[in-house]
Structures are given as C-alpha cells and as structure tokens.
C-alpha cells in the first residue's frame, strides 16, 4: 500500500509503500483482493435524496487507477503495478485546514494498453443501465418550475407532473415597452441605497427611471450582469459586479436576489392556483444556463440557488441545471407544423411561402402566435411532434440558441423509437448575443458625441440613458434585410440638453461635424439611421455567428444536418435569419419555432420532467489529475525525472478522467481510489486539471490549468484496524449537465461526502 503526505512534508516511506503495493500487485495480491472485494463487498454508495437511485458499479468492474492531488498535482496511482505514488518532496500533498490531505493508490487490474505510463480511461468507465432518471425521481415532487435566467430577459414556466403536456408560462409581468414583446421580464435588478433588494424586471427599471437623478446615484441598478459569469476568467464566490452608479456589489448576492424573486413569484402563482400555500419541497427547480458555460459558472448558479433558499445544500437534487440549447432541442422534438416557421421548406407550409421574404414570414408567424396566445398554457405533444415523422434513426440536427448574451449551439442525433437524444459534438458558441448590437450602437454614439460625454451622461442622467436604450431596442427589432426606409431613434430631451451643457454646442452640430454620414439629424429630435447604418451595427455580431456556424459545419461530426433550429429572442431578427440562410445555401432546413423567446423555458420544463432524455453528451474539456508514473527512458522527458530512494519516477503525469469531445453516457462513471496519508486524516483534497486539448500528457503542458478540487470528507468514518488499508472509492460522472462525485469508504461500506469545487481556485 502507498500513501501520500500531508501538509507538503516529505513522506519518506511514501514510495516504499508504493513499491510494496506494486510488489503485492505483481504477486497478484492486489487483484485477488479486488476480486474478493467485488464479490463480497459491493460498494454501497450514498443514496441520493429525491429517490434518485445510487449508481452502483457492476460487481465485475475493476478498481482502477487512483491518484493524489498535490500542490502541483503530484499524485499516487497504482494501476496494474505500473503507476506510482507521489506527494512527497517537490510534489507535496496539499493540506487543507489542519493538514488533512493525502491519498493513496490501490492495486488495479486495469490494463495498460502497452503504455506503461498512463492507464487507459476505458476500463474505469462504468456504463450504467439505461435507467429512466425521471422514474427514479418522479415521486418526490409535484411540479417542475424552470427559470430561464437570461442576459437581457428572464422568466419562469412550470408543469405539473400529473399533467406534463401542459406547460404554463408565468403570469404577465407588469410593465412593457412599445415595440417590444414582454414574454419574459428584463433581467434588471434594483437595490436600495442600503443594499437591500428592492425590485426586479420592469418594476426595477421603471422605479430606477423615475428616481430623482441626485437620489438615483445612491441606488444600485444592474442589468446584463449574467455575462460576467461567462467572461470572468477566475470566477469565485467573491466576484463583484458594478452597478450603474459604479458601486461594487457581490455577484453572488445579485444572482441570489434574482432567484429568490423568481421563487417567490412562482410559489405565489402556484399557491393562488392551488388555493393554499404551495410547499417549496414539492417543486423540482430547473435553472437554464448556456451550454458553453464552464463548470465554475454553473456551480456559481447553484451556489446562488442555495443562497436564495431555492433549494438547500443538503438536497442538491432538487435543483437541476439545464443547458439552454439542450432545453430548446427537447422542446423542438415536440413541435407540430403549426408551431413553427420553416425557412427552408420547398413547399408552402402553414400558409407561409418560403419565397416570401424572411421578415414578412416572421411577421405573419408572430401575428399567428399573438392570436393564439390568449392563454399562457402551451400544449405539447406527449409523443414526438409531427416534424419528426420526417426523421429516421440517426438523423442529425443543430440547435442554435441566439440570446441576448451568448449564441450557444448543440448538435443532436435522434434515437428512435423513444426520441432520446445523443450529443454529437461538444457544445460550442460564444458571446455573440444580441447585446453586441447594443454595444455597437453605444460605440456609434461615442464616435459622434465623444466617449467622455457618453460616460458622463450615463452616470448623470441614468433615466435618459434607459430611455435611449429602450428606443434603440424597438428600432433594432425593426431592422430587416429588405428595408429601404430609415429608422428613427428618439433622442431623449435630457440627452440633447445635457450635451449642449457639456460641449457648448448642439447635437445637430455634433452630427454635422462627425464623419458618420449615414446617421442624420431629424428636425423632430431624432437620430435618423439609414438601413445601411443599422445593418452595420448588426454586422460584427452576425459575422461572428456565421463564422462559428461555418466552422461547425466543417467538422466531420457535423455532416448531413437535416434541420437547423434557430431559437432564442435574437432568432427573430430577419437580418440574422437571412445571414444563416445565405450561409447554409439549402444544406439543411431552417426551422424557427413560434415564440422563440420561450423555447428554452418550455424545453427546460420538459427536461425537468424527464432529465434522462439526453442519453449521451460530449465533454467540453479534458479533465484529470496529476500523478507519478514509473519513469520510462526514451518515453518520458528527462526534466520530469524524480529519483526517490533509488526508484525513478516521472512527475506531473496527467491522469485523464475524460477527454474533450469524448462521448459519455448518462450514468457512466469514472472510478478512482484514494487513501488518506494518515489513518486519522479527516479530508482528502485532490486538484483537478483541465484543458481544451483532447490529448494531454502532463499537467505542465501548455493550456492545462488547475480548475477545481475534489474533496473527500472522511469525518464520521472511523479509521480501519491497524494494517488494514483504507480505500476511498470515488465515482465521478461526466455525462450530466454538472460533474458529480460520490465516494465510499470500502472497508466500512460507509458513504463518504464527496464534492467537486470549481470556484475556489
Ligand atoms: N428582431 C430582433 N432583432 C435583433 N435582436 C432581437 C430581436 N428580437 C429580440 N432580440 C434580442 O434578443 C435578446 C433576447 O433574447 P433572449 O430572451 O433569448 O435572450 P436572453 O435569454 O436574455 O440571453 P442569453 O440566453 O444569452 O442569456 C435581446 O437582446 C433582444 O434585443
Ligand atoms: Mg436565453
């Protein structure tokens, strides 16, 4: 047996133990022990709450390569007698708190596939039975409530378990803007000067708008803040946001306030419907996040949900994180022909001819939806929708969620007869949402009126800035490829007035002097933008999307795409639709569901009702830990050589849990075993590394970074009798929307608290 050290102190007998274990392994003792264990002590994993069945490895599954995290990922790994211990000397095992970390290696029968350094991943991937997750969890909740926390707009929708084909969207919000539909509410939040939650959505924006300018400086108003979770490289629980008045506020508080607001609204609506207080324990919550979000951002959302008391930390399964394009994909499976516009159809469909220009098709579709949307309840097929009658086993389609902040793509393949989905290519996309057009407009204003003026104006006249952006939003939505007449944007009087005071001359003068000749001044106090000027504002954002789509369609996994579903609010843009049509050149049919803005919300409810519908996903990144391997001359670089007690080790070896773009089934687990350095040790902490590259050899390779920690909390499990190895068997799941870990103290069959933290790097 071998161990890893605590608190970074060298462990003189670390390698001795490793060697002893190796000898044992070579003598076959390790295998015997494992075989014996798999027969007599089948791991008894913690029983998750909400009725979710513990996923147990089959009795024949091998115990495999363990590893130990050190400050630089030094680790222990014994696998078929080929991987060895680390953690001593220059690879100290990181101590947490009172110096309680470390780990061990277990002998393993995992095969080495001729590579003496790294044991292959596959033997430790355990494929679980194709269980229906919903069936496992179905009994413990009455209703699924999904929250679409958008960059620009948010909302919730729900469905009762007993009536899954009826999806109810939230009650109408008060407020709304001319020319802009209000299916969701703006993602805007207002805190009082003493930093208490005041309001959310239209209410927040309108209250802030009506504050006296001197007073408004004291209030904290935030919008478009979701993007911070995507753009912050070292996201942590302490990450801060800037309110409109420049004051800083903790991002976690803001997200928690917003979620608490949705919780209150949804429970109130459910209680009103039920005629009695609705118990939060009867709700399964779903929060949607972009599929391209990294693990820290997803975890951040979960932390905010805990803080908002949406669910409690002891009952994590009550909250499911849904990926936005996945949710859309689930909903699109259910589409009926009258619930969508087909831009690529050869014949007329739903009364709309594909030869009509895109704008008019959408206008008719919107009118159709408006007339049919008296009710907030949407009926979905309890089987797969009509569109799928055209699909056969193995057909592929792409979903492009074009939101305010991000454009997020997923490639799915359908499996008949159940209509289960398989992800064919890892989620991709980027920050190419519709707010890019707003930023271009702001840049244009800076060009005409000066950056210094715009910066000051935003702070000094916040209400007028809000008005200006509302006016722009409605004009932005009117932009279309075949438009010939200009678009007028109302400049608030306050803008004109403040500019005069600031510069000493008129806005009209500024426009004349600027070399922006496609924007003119209208005598009615408006900016008059030519269609070319508006198209120019869209261009950088649309170019990014098209470039991304082009690259995606060039991938070998992304051929023969039957449909491209365009969803999210930005999908309504005729300019974007036309650009996608031009790029695809008829290679696949473009389908735009009615109510594009609600597609994700409706799909998220369906996902909450049946999270098992997506059976296979692709890992967006390569994940693993650092371990020591036996040094192999000619294979390992000399600078990685570490000689300890006469044994030659290769340091920094990356033990891959899963590779980027590797497909992984729901329920599939990666198994590793660890042991504490000391019998009395309470916590094992192991660093997790990740990379965008599919193949990683060493944790020091370019592009590899430390991204999280696996924490095994041994408190409450007693140390084994002297001489008995303490093995903590750890199972990690990469096939879900979040990475999960479960662990078991093998000698006592007691469950060990296992968690993966991506936020404290
Ligand atoms: N016709 C249109 N042209 C351009 N943009 C549009 C149009 N209609 C809606 N949008 C934009 O779509 C966005 C809202 O879409 P949606 O609600 O899907 O985004 P979100 O969920 O807030 O963002 P994300 O999903 O990126 O977090 C807004 O930025 C809005 O300006
Ligand atoms: Mg969205």
TrEMBL record:
Adapter protein for SORL1, but not SORT1. Delays SORL1 internalization and affects SORL1 subcellular localization. InterPro entries: ATPase_NBD, HSPA12A_NBD. Coiled coil: none annotated. It is found in: Cytoplasm; Nucleus. The keyword Flavoprotein does not apply. GO terms for molecular function: ATP binding. Keywords: Acetylation, ATP-binding, Cytoplasm, Nucleotide-binding, Nucleus. Residues 23-56 have a biased composition (Basic and acidic residues). Belongs to the heat shock protein 70 family. SUPFAM superfamilies: Actin-like ATPase domain. One of its GO terms (cellular component) is nucleus. Interacts with SORL1 (via cytosolic C-terminus); this interaction affects SORL1 internalization and subcellular localization. CDD domains: ASKHA_NBD_HSP70_HSPA12A (cd11735). The keyword Coiled coil does not apply. Residues 1-81, 94-114 are annotated as: Disordered. This is Heat shock 70 kDa protein 12A.
């Amino acid at each position: 047996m071998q161990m890893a050290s605590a608190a970074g102190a060298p462990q003189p007998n670390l390698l001795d133990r490793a060697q002893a274990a190796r000898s044992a392994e070579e003598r076959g003792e390790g295998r015997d022990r494992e075989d014996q264990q798999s027969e007599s002590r089948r791991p008894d994993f913690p029983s998750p709450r909400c009725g979710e069945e513990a996923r147990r490895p089959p009795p024949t599954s091998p115990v495999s390569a363990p590893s130990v995290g050190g400050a630089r990922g030094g680790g222990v790994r014994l696998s078929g007698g080929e991987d060895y211990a680390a953690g001593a000397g220059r690879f100290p095992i990181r101590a947490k708190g009172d110096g309680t970390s470390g780990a061990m290696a277990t002998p393993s029968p995992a095969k080495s596939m001729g590579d003496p350094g790294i044991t292959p991943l596959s033997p430790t991937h355990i494929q679980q039975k194709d269980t229906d997750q919903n069936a496992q969890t179905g009994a413990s909740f009455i209703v699924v409530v999904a929250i679409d926390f958008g960059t620009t707009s948010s909302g919730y929708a729900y469905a009762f378990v007993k009536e899954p084909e009826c999806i109810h969207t939230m009650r109408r919000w008060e407020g709304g803007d001319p020319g802009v539909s209000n299916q969701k509410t703006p993602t805007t939040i207002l805190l009082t000067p003493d930093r208490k939650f005041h309001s959310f959505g239209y209410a927040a924006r309108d209250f802030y708008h009506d504050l006296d300018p001197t007073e408004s400086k004291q209030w904290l108003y935030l919008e478009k803040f979701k993007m911070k979770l995507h753009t912050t490289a070292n996201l942590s629980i302490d990450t801060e946001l800037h309110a409109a008045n420049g004051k800083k506020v903790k991002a976690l508080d803001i997200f928690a306030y917003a979620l608490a607001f949705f919780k209150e609204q949804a429970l109130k609506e459910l209680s009103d419907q039920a005629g009695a207080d609705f118990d939060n324990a009867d709700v399964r919550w779903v929060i949607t996040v972009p599929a391209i979000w990294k693990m820290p951002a997803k975890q951040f959302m979960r932390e905010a949900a805990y803080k908002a008391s949406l669910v409690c930390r002891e009952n994590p399964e009550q909250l499911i994180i849904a990926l936005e394009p996945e949710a859309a994909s689930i909903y699109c499976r259910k589409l009926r022909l009258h619930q969508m516009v087909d831009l690529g159809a050869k014949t007329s469909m739903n009364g709309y001819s594909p030869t009509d220009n895109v704008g008019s098709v959408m206008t008719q579709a919107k009118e159709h939806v408006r007339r049919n949307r008296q009710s907030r309840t949407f009926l979905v097929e309890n089987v797969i929708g009509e569109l799928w009658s055209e699909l056969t086993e193995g057909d592929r389609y792409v979903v492009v969620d074009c939101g305010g902040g991000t454009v997020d793509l997923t490639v799915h393949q359908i499996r008949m007869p159940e209509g289960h989905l398989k992800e064919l290519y890892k989620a991709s996309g980027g920050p190419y949402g519709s707010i890019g057009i707003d930023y271009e407009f702001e840049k244009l204003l800076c060009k005409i009126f000066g950056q210094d003026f715009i910066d000051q104006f935003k702070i000094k006249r916040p209400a007028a800035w809000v008005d200006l952006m509302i006016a722009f939003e409605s004009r932005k939505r009117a932009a279309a490829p075949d438009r010939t007449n200009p678009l007028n944007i109302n400049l608030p009087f306050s803008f004109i007035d403040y500019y005069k005071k600031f510069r000493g001359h008129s806005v009209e003068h500024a426009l004349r002097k600027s070399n922006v000749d496609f924007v003119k001044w209208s005598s009615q106090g408006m900016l008059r933008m030519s269609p070319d000027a508006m198209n120019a504002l869209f261009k950088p954002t649309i170019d990014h999307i098209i470039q991304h789509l082009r690259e995606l369609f060039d991938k070998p996994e992304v051929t023969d795409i039957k449909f491209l579903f365009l969803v999210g609010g930005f999908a309504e843009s005729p300019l974007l639709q036309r650009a996608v049509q031009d790029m695809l050149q008829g290679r696949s049919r473009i389908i735009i569901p009615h109510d594009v803005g609600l597609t994700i919300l409706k799909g998220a409810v369906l996902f909450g009702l049946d999270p098992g519908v997506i059976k296979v996903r692709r890992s967006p990144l390569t994940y693993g830990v650092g371990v020591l391997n036996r040094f192999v001359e000619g294979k390992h670089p000399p600078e990685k050589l570490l000689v300890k007690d006469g044994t030659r080790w290769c340091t920094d070896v990356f033990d891959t849990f899963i590779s980027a773009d590797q497909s992984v089934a729901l329920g599939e687990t990666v198994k590793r075993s660890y042991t504490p350095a000391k019998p009395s040790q309470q916590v094992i902490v192991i660093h997790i590394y990740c990379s965008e590259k599919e193949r990683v050899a060493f944790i020091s390779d370019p592009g590899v970074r430390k991204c999280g920690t696996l924490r095994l909390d041994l408190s409450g499990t007693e140390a084994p009798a002297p001489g008995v190895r303490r093995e903590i068997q750890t199972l990690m799941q990469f096939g879900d929307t979040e990475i999960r870990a479960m662990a078991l103290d093998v000698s006592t069959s007691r469950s060990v608290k296992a968690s993966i933290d991506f936020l404290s790097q």
